[in-house]
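Query structure, 193 tokens:
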């Protein structure tokens, strides 16, 4: 409705541009939160706030490349900045392109969102141990716990989720989610979706 009103000239086009940008930033924040990279306190404490650009950079470290269209985000950001800060109305094509970028990003991230919303613990076979290695995302603490299946995770030290090892583990988790979604047609059904 908002987009249609802007396309018809009923409202200024900068209004939906700002909303589109905020929607993408919100979805990116949700995914980063589910991965322990954006604890809720970062959204309310000004000194710990992550800008859109920083969120995109974190996202690029863990989310498969095809899902974060950096060049489209950059173009959309420039259009939005021109509209909101320079008071230049965006062209209809720019507005339409931004909406399409948002829709594609939401569509591409929905399956990760669905899984990460419900699951924060992932198991991997170990080459050196008989038991599985478990990676648990502690969302509110911005940390990962890595422990052997059957070990008491409370006695083990966690990893900061923005450290290099943790980012490598998160990238592995995201790649595995992508692999299973693409290659196992019953994967979502097995998870109860």
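Result returned for the query:
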């Amino acid at each position: 409705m908002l987009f249609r009103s802007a396309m018809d000239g009923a409202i200024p086009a900068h209004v939906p541009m700002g909303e589109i940008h905020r929607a993408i930033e919100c979805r990116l924040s949700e995914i980063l939160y589910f991965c322990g990279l954006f604890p809720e306190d970062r959204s309310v404490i000004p000194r710990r706030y992550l800008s859109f650009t920083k969120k995109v950079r974190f996202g690029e470290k863990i989310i498969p490349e095809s899902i974060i269209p950096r060049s489209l985000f950059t173009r959309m950001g420039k259009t939005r900045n021109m509209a909101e800060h320079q008071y230049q109305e965006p062209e209809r094509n720019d507005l339409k392109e931004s909406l399409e970028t948002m829709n594609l990003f939401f569509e591409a991230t929905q399956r990760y969102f669905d899984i990460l919303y419900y699951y924060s613990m992932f198991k991997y076979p170990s080459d050196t141990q008989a038991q599985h290695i478990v990676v648990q995302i502690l969302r509110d603490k911005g940390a990962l716990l890595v422990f052997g299946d059957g070990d008491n995770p409370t006695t083990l030290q966690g990893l900061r989720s923005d450290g290099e090892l943790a980012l490598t583990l998160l990238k592995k988790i995201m790649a595995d989610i992508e692999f299973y979604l693409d290659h196992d047609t019953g994967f979502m059904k097995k998870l109860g979706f």
